[in-house]
Design a protein that fits this description.
The complex is a heterodimer of chains A (about 230) and B (about 300). Chain A has 10 helices and 10 strands. Chain A is an alpha/beta fold and about 230 residues long. Chain A folds into 2 domains: about 1-75 and about 155-165 and about 185-235, Rossmann fold, CATH 3.40.50; about 85-150, no CATH class. The radius of gyration of chain A is 17 Å and the shape is globular. Chain B has a domain at about 35-240. The chains are: A alpha/beta (about 230), B mainly alpha (about 300). The structure holds adenosine-5'-triphosphate (ATP) and magnesium ion.
Chain lengths: ~230, ~300
């Protein structure tokens, strides 16, 4: 579905990604693991059109989408839940969710709103509360809910478990698994290695802007190189 | 009455009421100019130094529409408001936005540059001559008992209320309005839901200029147009924006009225030249006790 080949990207003079290649198949959960500063968010933001890559290709269902503007990427159904949630703090939960369907899924806004609050009943209790006053976990739910409002075809999750209590982390992974079982393709960027590999089909490990390891999740779980690559042991 | 050893003239209630009410009318215009300014600041974080020049330009547009085509200044709103929007949109999208490369300090200088260009062009093409429009009904009005309110004053009051109300409805009820609010606090989040930030910036700037154009229509029947008229109003509008709280609509409205009334009462008691300092005094006082302005929230 999403196919990235030899992607080079960075910020101005600073090169961050040095030739990333990976694929996300329809209906898959693909995990991307890597320590702080590896370049995971940089990759996501190049896919989402926040930044433009220096070279390489990003293809979605066979068409080249490299360097497309973020609106066009959303139009295609590639939707990101960014690191740090980035909800609209000055707006209510309802408005945040409504804006999720600013471009995609506007026609079914009502139905999708119902569906999202069904998934996250906690959001409905505070529908008119400002997003900026929510707890970190609630903001994460809101960010995911906002993304679901646009009827994504590929959902990019950037460290969704970051800052959540162990119980919520567990819930989060269950939810991701459910969304995937309902047919959504998911690109899961995480530092929570074990839990990610348990729900993912395949995984990549990124180190200093390069993919150093990849394979089927189950195999990686047993791979001694994973510990070596990821934990630097 | 005495104040700090000065003896102030004592007036009857009707004079004081009269001044207060004319302050409210004046304040409504200040509010309208300030609303555009505060919107642009709140979303784009641009301190728009060109605001006054744009007001002046819009006033000339209203003047010439009347002078050449005989269009009533209030009716001219139907032309200058959309025109102001389009002009503001283009100015932000193709000049200010492009020239400043997202750096706030450069943006500031670019708007200053735009102001200078517009003001000097106005001086060159229109000369420094004051031009005024006299509508046939400019002295008609309603007797409010304590004072007599002429129609241009009433139009300013009603107009600025309606426009602020419409703006508020737009910002809270429409997707574009919500997108503007989203962009004001969370640009990357906005991009990720598919909002075109450059477009929204330009729309916001356009709305700010549209407000100024509406203010121009409301001003022309009572104020003569000349190339410096904008600076006069915008200086006060800046005060209103800071007083009300940067980025706050309600603040702009309340601040506008507060400044308008203060100015008129100051004039009444202290005379033309000294009266104006009351604005600065109130301004400093409010900021001493509320550094974020009356309705401002802390930045960040
Ligand atoms: N907006 C930016 N401008 C300049 N450099 C940046 C920017 N964002 C990230 N970087 C740099 O790019 C490198 C990769 O950062 P990135 O955020 O992609 O890492 P990451 O793998 O997502 O890390 P983490 O797990 O901490 O989120 C880092 O060295 C970082 O300092
Ligand atoms: Mg990251």
């Amino acid at each position: 579905m999403l196919e990235i080949t030899d992607l080079h990207a960075g910020y101005g003079q600073m090169k961050v990604l040095h030739g990333i290649s990976l694929t996300i198949g329809a209906g898959e959960i693909v995990a991307l693991l890597g320590s702080n500063g590896a370049g995971k968010s940089t990759l996501n933001n190049n896919i989402s059109g926040i930044y433009r890559p220096n070279s390489g290709k990003i293809k979605f269902e066979g068409t080249d989408i490299t360097g497309l503007r973020s609106e066009a990427v959303v139009d295609l159904g590639i939707v990101q839940v960014p690191e740090g949630r980035r909800v609209f703090p000055n707006m209510s939960i309802r408005e945040n969710l409504e804006l999720g369907s600013f471009r995609r899924g506007r026609a079914r806004r009502r139905e999708n709103l119902d569906r999202v609050v069904e998934i996250f009943p906690r959001l409905q209790e505070r529908f008119d509360q400002l997003a900026g006053t929510l707890s970190g976990g609630e903001q994460q739910m809101l960010a995911i809910g906002r993304a679901l409002m646009s009827e994504p075809r590929v959902l990019i999750l950037d460290e969704p478990s970051l800052g959540l209590s162990p119980l919520l982390v567990e819930e989060m992974f269950t939810l991701i698994d459910h969304l995937n079982k309902d047919g959504l393709s998911i690109f899961l960027v995480e530092q929570n290695v074990m839990q990610s590999l348990e729900i993912a089909h395949r995984a990549y490990v990124m180190e200093n802007g390069e993919i150093v390891l990849s394979g089927v999740a189950e195999d990686l779980l047993k791979d001694p190189n994973l510990k070596k690559a990821y934990l630097g042991l | 009455m005495e104040l700090l050893g000065f003896s102030l003239p004592s007036y009857g209630w009707s004079t004081i009421f009269g001044s207060t009410i004319s302050g409210v009318f004046l304040g409504s215009i200040y509010a309208l100019v300030a609303v555009g300014l505060t919107l642009i600041y709140g979303v784009l974080h641009i301190i728009n130094f060109a605001h006054g020049a744009l007001l002046m330009l819009a006033m000339y547009a209203v003047y010439f529409l009347w002078n050449i085509l005989g269009i009533d200044p209030y009716l001219a709103m139907l032309i200058v408001v959309p025109g102001g929007f389009a002009f503001g949109y283009g100015l932000q999208r193709f000049i200010i936005g492009k020239a400043s490369h997202g750096k706030d300090e450069i943006t500031l200088l670019v708007t200053l540059g735009v102001a200078i260009v517009i003001e000097n062009m106005a001086l060159f093409f229109f000369s420094a001559t004051e031009r005024s429009v006299r509508v046939p009904y400019d002295l008609d009005g309603i007797d409010l008992g304590v004072t007599y309110a002429v129609y241009p004053e009433l139009a300013a009051l009603v107009g600025s209320f309606l426009i602020t109300l419409a703006l508020w409805a737009f910002m809270t009820r429409t997707d574009t309005g919500k997108a503007i609010r989203a962009v004001s606090k969370e640009r990357q989040g906005a991009q990720l839901v598919g909002i075109n930030v450059d477009h929204i910036f330009a729309v916001t700037f356009g709305i700010g200029v549209a407000c100024v154009a509406a203010a121009a229509s409301l001003l022309v029947p009572t104020y003569a147009v000349h190339p410096q008229i904008g600076s006069l109003f915008v200086l006060i509008a800046f005060t209103v924006v800071v007083l009300g709280g940067m980025g706050s609509f309600v603040g702009a409205l309340v601040g506008g009225f507060l400044i308008g009334v203060t100015e008129q009462l100051g004039r009444l008691y202290l005379g033309e030249s000294l009266g104006v300092i009351t604005i600065s005094v109130i301004f400093i006082f409010v900021l001493l006790f509320r550094p974020t302005g009356l309705f401002g929230v802390k930045a960040g």
